[in-house]
Amino acid sequence: MRLLVTGGAGFIGANFVQQTVLEHPDVTVTVLDALTYAGNRASLDPVAGRVNFVHGDIADLDLVDELVSGVDAVVHFAAESHNDNSLADPWPFVQTNIVGTFSLLQAVRRHEVRFHHVSTDEVYGDLEPDDAAFDETTAYNPSSPYSATKASSDLLVRAWTRSFGVRATISNCSNNYGPYQHVEKFIPRQITNLIGGVRPRLYGAGHQVRDWIHVDDHNRAVWAILERGRIGQTYLIGADGELDNKSVVRMILEAFDLDPDGFDHVTDRAGHDQRYAIDATLLRTELGWTPRYRDFRTGLAATIQWYRDNEPWWRPYKASAERAYAAAGETEINPVL
Length: 337
Ligand code: NAD
Ligand code: TDX
Description:
By secondary structure, the protein is of the alpha/beta class. The chain has helices spanning 11-23, 61-68, 83-88, 91-111, 145-164, 186-195, 215-228, 245-255, 281-287, 296-309, 311-327; strands at 2-6, 28-33, 52-55, 73-76, 114-120, 168-173, 176-177, 201-203, 209-211, 213-214, 234-237, 242-244, 264-266.
């Protein structure tokens, strides 16, 4: 199989490419990535010489058409992915997540190429503490510019499937953790703060809940859907990993042998989604997928070790990520607990 992977120099895409080279050696991989602030060529160093890398934009219709004409399937990870950035400047989210997905859909339609669209549980909005988890029938209700543009891209995929017969599947996954995640994101930000002797930063009171899944489990689910998923079907991906943010920060501090209360509360995110939770019954029963990482503390410890061992990978990005938070007005607060 010849596979085009968009966003393959980003967090989940790079882990996907590494997993594919290891576990599917018969697959020829081409990566298309614009190397935005979130892309890092070094994330593909372990597979150097075993994948083709094209530096380009998914919204470039001619380039995308040419690349898609030479493959059997596309796995589409490329996106602007950070909620906080979408609040500061939504435009790149509209351009890449909506226009970029449109460009890919036009090419897979023209060349009749199989398409898998990687999306997020955030398209469903958020849940109250006692609500049932999201499933494939949950209505779309996005909250942030990021999640609204991802929801828009999902709807484009559904329309191209129904109207033009594009052979597409969609997956909506919960929060990923693992190696190669940008230091702007919650878990790597706190780990790299602590490596530098800086206290973790918890938004508001830290009661928001996220449903954590290891990136390798997400990517094995993507492979299961690519190989055995039903065309036109949406699959939710999650590993029953619900935790509130405060508990995660305390676990990270404990893993560093530090006082679990040694963090600061900072300005809360505008419109902050309260809770995400995934019901992955369809993926488990229909495709036989199960997560390999069942213990969050173990996966977290391995992730912390990875950031300790790979400081040259993340260090160049740390100061600019922290500058962006400062520029957005992040300050220490006393939340109502
Ligand atoms: P990321 O921000 O780490 O990586 C995104 C990659 O896309 C980068 O390499 C970037 O250079 C590239 N890119 C951005 N704009 C581009 C463009 N116009 N053309 C080509 N390449 C471009 O993101 P991630 O966390 O790896 O997320 C990957 C996908 O998974 C996204 O679609 C995201 O919505 C989805 N997702 C992420 C999570 C999560 O927890 N991180 C959870 C569910 C779904
Ligand atoms: O410093 C922080 N302190 C903090 O308390 C940061 C950066 C975040 N947070 C909170 C906000 C969220 O409740 O932690 C939680 C996780 O934050 P992010 O890592 O920014 O992730 P989230 O907004 O939940 O979105 C992630 O999961 C779904 C990905 O970034 C998205 O791409 C994906 O779609």
